[in-house]
Amino acid sequence: MKNRWTKLGTRSAALVLGAAILLPGLTAHAATTYTAKDSDTFWKLSQQMNIPLQKLMDANPNINPLNIYAGLKLTIPGEASASNKLTMNAAASAKPIQAVATASGKTLSYSKVLNITATAYSAAPEENGKWGAVDYFGNPLKLGTIAVDPNVIPFGTKLYVTGYDFSGLPTGGFVATASDAGSAIKGNRIDIFVPGSAKFVSDFGIQSVKVYILN
């Protein structure tokens, strides 16, 4: 169901270990250095540091949001550097306080749960246009690829999706990554990639699902 004819261009240029994200209008002495953890994303950092997500994203147009990893040095705006340091220290030592049990019995920590309207799409050419069967970043579509409105669920966010009823998806729920977009996917909507023919995938229809934003 995804219409990707207005899809944006592919982003690239992964960060190099030790590189810094520089934010406009700030001098070096006004910024704070933060060492990323494996679970960090731009969205999580914006929430923890009380910094607008769009400011981080717009300031780093060549940064791949799927490639923030442990040990990476990030530069955080320093308007309130003392406060940010306290927030970062607290975030680094904070323990998960919310968890969801998966169908396999694994426990996943999450920061937020959303009630979302979901549709599904296949790798069929008519659903993917001239870009072919790839996501927003040029990666091949696979089970676990989800198209989102990045203003609601930022790219790179890990998700646990449950509450659907469809034989083409794992029973009970599955872990996914927000790595695709589409002009028809706006607001509290997601489009789930499902392997199979367009006819088979269309049987998914429109369903209400729960989406857990994972830590």
UniProtKB/TrEMBL annotation:
An example Gene Ontology molecular-function term: hydrolase activity, hydrolyzing O-glycosyl compounds
Organism: Cohnella terricola
Membrane-traversing stretches: none
GO cellular component: outer membrane
Domain of life: Bacteria
Domain LysM: 32-76
Protein name per Swiss-Prot or TrEMBL: LysM peptidoglycan-binding domain-containing protein
InterPro entries: 3D_dom, 3D_YorM, LysM, LysM_dom_sf, Resuscitation_pf_RpfB, RlpA-like_sf
SMART domains the record matches: LysM
